[in-house]
Amino acid sequence: MVTSSHEAMHRIFQHDPGLFSRVSHFLGADIPRPVGATALPTDLTEDSPVERRVDTLLRLDTADQGPFLLAVEAQGKKDPAKASSWAYYAAYLWTKYRLPTALLVVCQDLRTAKWARGPMTCGPAQVPTLTLQPLVAGPHNMPQITDPDEARADLVLASLAAIAHAADPGVDAILKALSAALKDAPEDLVHPIIEFTARGLGNRPAKHTWRNLMAVDLSFYTSWLAEEIRDETAARYLLRVLERRGFDVSDDVRERITSCHDQSLFDAWMDRALTAEQVSDIFEDE
């Protein structure tokens, strides 16, 4: 199943294709900064019934070395089947576009990162034939950016670093630095960074840290995250009012309240909850 964390790990390169050249510095490669980038179709399916779909595919144009393709894969765990899939991606893209092809795998744990960097070979041990050795970005080589000024200098890189270190004990310091850097950043930059970071953290404890940091001041920002926090806060207060008034809140009622995303309904329910004689009274007009 594709998770929000999985999506953020590769879509962040669609948002800022130049991020790859900055990340490559930490991966032991020297990739020139692109002077242009084009998002290409990610469906690598042939006529056969087997679907092949890369996570993100970009054509990056450089001033000195010409264009090349960048395939970005977000990998959450070791998967032996990926070796043949990635080899297929690289070979297919090279064949179709006749351009050099790079494969970047983004991971969030050391075990997966160590496996993903290969080398992975095709063929008997004596005749490997095809060797695949992706670049891997993960907690082993992504910087831990804990200085707000450093985060402010490259917000997208700081977001990716936070995502890569999502499971690390020190991720809270990284998130605090990123949060501080966002306070005076242009709004058009703030929006996607908050989104990518929130989704990239997945369901790890760091997600709650990030939500709390964002909840301190959301006046400058409207997004699914801000709305989700407001909805949860409104639901929590409404349930508390009902419980303090001595009502027995059933699971159905609790689910109805917590799944609501209509602020006007919350307001109406709260008003009725203050004088209702029974829980059903708060839903009387629906």
TrEMBL record:
It comes from the Bacteria. PANTHER family: SLL0800 PROTEIN, SLL6017 PROTEIN. This is Transposase. It comes from Streptomyces luteolus.
